[in-house]
Amino acid sequence: MTTAPALSLRKLSKQFAGKSVVNEISLEIQPGEIFGLLGPNGAGKSTTINMISGVSRVGGGEISVFGHDNQSEFVETRRLTGVMHQEIVVDTFFNVDTALKLHAGYYGVKDDPQWRELLIDRLALGPHLKKEMIKLSGGMKRRFMVAKALIHKPRLLILDEPTAGVDVELRQQLWAFVREINRDLGTTVLLTTHYLEEAEEMCGRVAIMNEGNVIALDHTRSLLAKLDEKRLIVHLTEPLAAVPVGLQGALEEGGKKLVLRVEHGVGDALQALASLGAQVREIETQAPSLQEAFLKLTKRKV
Amino acid sequence: MNTSSQQASKQTFHPYLPFYTLLKREVLRFFSVAAQTLITPVITASLYLLVFGVSLGSKIDLYPDLTYAQFVVPGLILMGVMNQAFANTSSSIFIYRFFGGIVDLLVTPLTAPQFILAFTTAAMIRGILVGLATFLISLLFTGLPWMHPFLAAGMILIGAFLFAQFGIIAAIYSKNFDALSMFTNFLILPLIYTGGLFYPVSHLPPFWQVISRFNPMAYLIDGFRQCILGFGSFPLWLDFAVAGGISMLLFVWAWRLTVSGKGLRT
Prior knowledge:
The complex is a heterodimer of chains A (302) and B (266). Chain A is of the alpha/beta class and 302 residues long. Helix content of chain A is 35%, strand content 27%. Chain A has helices spanning 45-53, 74-80, 96-106, 113-122, 138-150, 168-185, 196-202, 220-227, 266-276, 290-301; strands spanning 7-16, 19-29, 34-38, 60-65, 68-69, 81-84, 156-160, 188-192, 205-210, 213-219, 231-236, 249-252, 257-261, 280-286. Chain A is elongated and about 75 Å long. Chain B has helices at 17-32, 34-55, 68-98, 103-106, 112-138, 149-173, 177-193, 206-212, 216-229, 236-260. In chain B, helix 2 packs antiparallel against helix 3 and helix 5 (112-138) runs antiparallel to helix 10 (236-260).
């Protein structure tokens, strides 16, 4: 028996006022993955997440969560999914403790004090349990929203820009906890973030969206490798007047720094430099960041 | 990292728990702002009782063997129930929508009937609490014969249900606070006040009697009063038929809106 994907999107579409916001995107996320959905503002990431979680109506195509259709079997898919929205959403009538207990009930599960206390502990909410929501700081509200998304132990956790505007400490705590539940409970994670280094560090696979389309979908490392943008940076003792013939790159710092694309290997580049009699002071290589991959891919489509 | 998350037990799904939880949340919500949701309407009703029951009422003589206070109290009780049932669903759902908190419910396994019935039941509880308090305060001014107490309770339940549905519909259609208050000020209050709250429809000139027949509130108020006093302007079965029919109509309307996601899901 094959295992159903944790999340499957098939030709998912959405239009707002006749304008296509998500354009027939298809992708699958396997159980246990940490998957990143990246893209500039307005790429369609949040709309996609809203359709998966039930906040938005599906415009076209299909969504299934662990093999269950999210329209005909929405009770099943929603209890399997936990979502933390990008906008801060809290129930201002209650304190943190009461709101968490209510949230478990909305998902049809009885309060599990052991699990609730674990969430409170990991997200450092303990000292704030009896505080009214409106008295919480922005960071605290975000911590609460993570706890809220996890209170019913979802098998698929969706985090939409969870670290936007939060301090480094919370960011580290949050990612450590996400890794922990991914490892220990096998929770599948779909996240969007603007901090590409986070996606690079956290996600096994990423999809890049732009203008409603998925323009890249691959293992994070493969995506970076495919871009073939590894660079060789050569610091020279004497400046060069021009980039040596046969090499692709650019001169910086008045000709004393040569930044080369190494499509043909480091050896070729060094040989070319040696034949020119260039005096090499220092050599370094630089791997592309996801930030660069992201910019390159989105720029290509604009 | 040493994690106890592995020890967490598997969650069992209780299909009715989302309904009970939303109902509990709604009741806790209106109790948390009781000064506004319970005490203010009771004070308003008490002032009406003071004006019509004690001062003006003694000068009004509608029926032999019946004081004006006895005539007006059933209407005031029902008005409290209906107003508060409407206020609860309309304000709660609208605030949820307006401030975006509705997403907390949209992502859960809560079904459309559970959504409607949880908000409705909470609104009915608030309405009935206010109605009960109004009744208890009215005992300071007058007693009532309670001719058909069970039917009276039935009409209270129908009235509360009907206005709770109306509140859901108003909250979904309203785009801002102004639009929501228009429902109250330009629809609900005129319908209630012209529905025979302070006078019997049968005492109106013939033309206005005909107009009143098109006001559904007239049947609710007349029906409830008839259950208590034993007589009214319309046949009792007609009062119940109109009240029940409109309730069902509004329930279907609210259900269809909720299922379609209009105003709730983008």
